[in-house]
Fold this sequence. Notes:
The chain has helices at residues 10-21, 33-40, 51-60, 70-73, 97-109, 126-141, 161-166, 178-192, 203-234, 238-246, 267-280, 286-298, 301-310, 337-347, 360-367, 377-380, 401-407, 422-427, and strands at residues 2-6, 25-29, 64-67, 79-82, 114-118, 147-151, 171-174, 198-201, 318-322, 351-355, 372-373, 386-389, 412-415, 431-433. It has 18 helices and 14 strands. Helix 1 packs across helix 3 and helix 9 (203-234) packs across helix 12 (286-298). The chain is α/β, with parallel strands linked by helices and 438 residues long. The chain has 3 domains: 2-201, Rossmann fold, CATH 3.40.50.720; 211-297, Rossmann fold (3-Layer(aba) Sandwich); 299-433, NAD(P)-binding Rossmann-like Domain (Rossmann fold), CATH 3.40.50.
Amino acid sequence: MKVAVVGTGYVGLVTGTCFAEVGIEVVCIDIDQKKIDNLHKGIMPIYEPGLEEMVLRNVAKGRLHFSTNLGDAIQGAEVAFIAVGTPPGEDGSADLKYVVGVAREIGEHMNNYMVVVTKSTVPVGTSEKVRTAVQTALDKRGQKLTFDVASNPEFLKEGAAIEDFLKPDRIVVGTSSKQAEETLGKLYKPFTLNGHPVIYMDIPSAEMTKYAANAMLATKISFMNDIANLCEIMGADVNLVRKGIGSDARIGHKFIYPGVGYGGSCFPKDVKALIRTARENGHDMRILEAVEAVNEDQKEVLSSKVVKHFGEDLNGKTFGVWGLSFKPKTDDMREAPSVVIINELLRRGAKVRAYDPVAMAEAKHQLADTITYAKDPNDAILDVDALLLITEWPEFRMPNFDVVKKLMNQHVIFDGRNQYDRHELREMGFTYYGIGLQ
């Protein structure tokens, strides 16, 4: 079986590599020549644990290929996945020009029956636009080839994407064709042998499922952050509240950790897109509008605590930052709270020294030379007036606070993830601020 995956970003590269891992012939296609050249050299465009080793292994075995030529790459493929970007417009709507453009190009070059699958996160109704684009291109060629369109949204967590793909909670497939269902069932059989379910549904429901899932998770995060801020006002301990409600099986412990807001490539974009889609159809997503507003405000909570402690003018102050990516185990800084927090400190005249285990290169694209990039965690807090923990990387969990204390000018910690024991730190002489804590 041969599969083509168009797009070598986070979703496309993981998808193609994991299919190759189970013995399927895969061609990953991208218009970015430099990215394809780098992949041929074993240089990854993203950081994802385990991905580089898996790519190199499957390239060596001749199962995984990379190309910029879509026309050649899709020849003989039974399935073509569209996994290109859908960047948000100013109004929050998803930009579908890349998805539709790929669909048109598939129609211009396909020479056999094929299932064209939207893997990108797209609004309800996109698959029909894909179908129209493919059919229009075929009609222009005078070809009578048959094809099917399907929706197969991804549910990958950055930092655990390989495990999520190889051992999925569920696989969602939206299609109206029995032949497409059988083709995708065959493709996903290696991933369902251990009982992982394939859930078949109509295409609009599959498209909506992805948005609904991300919107629900974003809602849990913003709800808990709102509760955390109320806890702080009322003198309650949000960590205890979290344990109390997480024990309820209807709620659960996942995604109820208070912090500095969600970021990344999925939640912000998908919440905005779902709100926009609803408005275009005469419906207001009032809960999601509040979720988005709470999240934007939450990104400013840590810098507000800094200002409350040090004052409005931060000239002459230097702050150490641990963690820049929006979450651990990724170098993704899209919509990262760190950018909002750092920019606010800089706006008030402060200097910033920052360290992240894998996101330093990406941070330089986002923040340029406005901050100092430290070589390690200790270097980031050398002679600083306060430490801000923003991303809860494992290597920040148990620092030697005796060393930390000696390195810092002032002994102030702003813990954006409630990772440290505030009582212990206060006994050591630190001034400690958390989220939703006194």
